[in-house]
Design goal:
This protein is mainly alpha-helical. The chain contains eleven helices and no strands.
Length: 205
């Protein structure tokens, strides 16, 4: 696990460094342009300022898909599949689950005693869940009508689009402020870019 983390750090660090360096250099150029020729920067901003609605993009993902008819039509087959899968999982959890092996594999992430407690808690949680799955599979095989009450209670649609609607509203205040005071914004951008460039340069020393 430590080798994987080290590989990720050594791979991503140079990429992140180059991205920060390029961003700071671009910020420096834009800051100078805001002071020298702010009208040109505003035209660039107008040309590049395109709004892409995430609510429209995820709309197809929120359309409910009714699978009840297929489930009730093939309820015995589906119940047998769920029963077999839950039984196999219980067998693995009860007789093949090795907490010690997992603790040794992830020993670099934290205290072994805490990791052992976490893995054992997950094991118990999975055992309880699969016992419940066995009961649900038996009901699905022989009396699927008993699940209709639970189905009516749990069959609800929660729209993520409605909750994220305020985040999908455009705010033009930063653009208006930069348009009203381009020299001030340009100076701040130059100072910030120079600070980042100097900090990145000191990392190479």
């Amino acid at each position: 696990m430590k080798a994987i983390v080290d590989l990720a750090v050594h791979t991503l660090a140079p990429v992140l460094y180059v991205l920060l360096l390029a961003g700071a250099a671009l910020g420096l150029v834009i800051g100078i342009m805001l002071i020298v020729d702010s009208a040109r920067v505003m035209r660039w901003n107008y040309a590049l300022n395109r709004w892409y609605s995430t609510r429209r993009a995820i709309r197809p993902l929120e359309r409910p898909i009714d699978v009840k008819r297929a489930i009730y039509r093939w309820h015995r087959l589906l119940g047998l599949v769920v029963f077999a899968a839950a039984l196999y999982t219980l067998d693995v959890l009860m007789f093949g689950y090795q907490t010690g092996a997992l603790v040794r594999a992830f020993r670099d992430l934290g205290n072994p005693a805490l990791l052992s407690l976490v893995f054992e808690t997950v094991r118990i949680f999975l055992i309880v869940g699969n016992v419940a799955a066995l009961a649900a599979a038996a009901v699905l095989c022989f009396r699927p009508s008993l699940l209709k009450g639970l189905e009516a209670w749990g069959d609800r649609n929660y729209s993520g689009r409605e909750s994220t609607k305020p985040l999908d509203t455009m705010h033009y205040q930063p653009d208006d402020f930069a348009r009203a005071k381009p020299r001030l914004v340009g100076g701040l951008v130059i100072l910030g870019s120079l600070y980042v460039l100097l900090s990145l340069g000191m990392l190479l020393v």
